[in-house]
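Q&A log
Question type: sequence-to-structure
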Amino acid sequence: MWKVKGTQAGFDDADYDGGYIFGSWFMSGESRKYKKGAFGRLSPKTTVGKGGMAARELAARYSYVSLDDGDTAGGEQTNDTLGLNWYTTKYVRFMANYAYVDADPINTATAGADNVDQAC
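Response status: OK
Response body:
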């Protein structure tokens, strides 16, 4: 949750909600090291050009944010993302992502716009 301090008289401080969930699976059997709150560099079991297909990862993420609170009507948004990562060596990664965005912008600048859906 985020807090925003207002500077105008008559407006309460706004509280916004949001979050995400993320998961991935290495189809080639690798795992990512995790230490002190951070992921380390991935080392593929095999590399391209040396007899292997390298590491392949399938990833998914869902995120949500609401910018509505009291006098503030900022709208809501959700994002669904599906990704494929190919780690050809320890230092080279190719990424492909598909993202579906469902935005409900509600404010005076976009009055009348109920829903905006986009795929990237």
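Response note: The chain is about 0% helix and 55% strand.
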